[in-house]
Amino acid sequence: MTEKKERIAKKMAEAGLCSRREAERWIEAGRVRVNGGVLKTPACVVGDEDVVLVDGKPLKIKEKTRVWLYHKTVGLVTTYRDPQGRPTVFEKLPKSLPRVISVGRLDLNSEGLLLLTNDGEWARKMELPSSHLDRTYRVKVHGHLTGEVLSRLSKGVKIDGVQYAPARILVEKKQGTNTWVQMTLTEGKNREIRRLMAFFGLEVAKLIRVSYGPYELGDLKSGEVKEVPCVLFQA
């Protein structure tokens, strides 16, 4: 039987060390050795017979994919280290958790459901637009959210050359110039909701992610984390 070989970045992601993109940066920084030599390029394939060391430690065999739901609070950044010294999501997690990575991000002023996993490859599949996974948010919008704006958002909007896919929006309630809506996206572009609303002169006063694909925030309290079964799929 021919030995199956895979790209080194994929192997590192599957081992839960980092994302593929981060793996490429680690390789460029000289942190990865293959069969005794420092790896110079991510364009390398390895198999089970190859000896791979990351920061001097053997690359672990892929573990069972595990998933946690985490209720992120406002004021945390979704990164391991922040150059500005702001508190991070990973600093607040229980010490009993293994090393995990996040599926996508929530910005500093956003809260709600953040998925955590030990499997970088699974995380990548969850983030791909081609996976067509719904991300649903409750959003408090300040300003005049008119029917015309809702119609345009439902058809997709192009901003500064970037095309944003149609969004599904359900108006929950209005209080003066504030409107609570439920907004569902399928692409998850960086700061997508805030950019869409700003394009129409509206301000996002509060943003809470309540679901991501098959996973829901439910009654998980702010700051809590809970392990749940992993849903496997092909992207």
What would a concise description of this structure say?
The protein is α+β, with helices and mostly antiparallel strands and 235 residues long. It folds into three domains: 6-58, Structural Genomics Hypothetical 15.5 Kd Protein In mrcA-pckA Intergenic Region, Chain A (Roll), CATH 3.10.290; 67-129 and 215-228, Alpha-Beta Plaits (2-Layer Sandwich), CATH 3.30.70.580; 134-212, Pseudouridine synthase, CATH 3.30.2350.10. Helix content is 19%, strand content 32%.
Description:
By secondary structure, the protein is an alpha+beta fold. The chain folds into 3 domains: 6-58, Structural Genomics Hypothetical 15.5 Kd Protein In mrcA-pckA Intergenic Region, Chain A; 67-129 and 215-228, 2-Layer Sandwich (Alpha-Beta Plaits), CATH 3.30.70.580; 134-212, 2-Layer Sandwich (Pseudouridine synthase), CATH 3.30.2350.10. It has helices spanning 8-14, 20-28, 89-92, 120-127, 147-155, 192-199, and strands spanning 6-7, 32-34, 37-38, 45-46, 52-54, 57-58, 67-72, 101-103, 111-117, 135-142, 157-159, 162-164, 168-175, 178-185, 203-212, 215-216, 225-228. Strands 7, 8, 9, 10, 13, 14, 15, 16 and 17 form a 9-stranded mixed β-sheet that branches. It has a 4-stranded antiparallel β-sheet with strand order 3-2-5-6, with no helix packed on it. A two-stranded antiparallel sheet has the order 1-4. A hairpin with a 2-residue loop joins strand 13 and strand 14 (178-185). Helix 1 (8-14) crosses helix 2 (20-28). The longest helix has 9 residues, at 20-28. The protein is elongated and about 65 Å long.
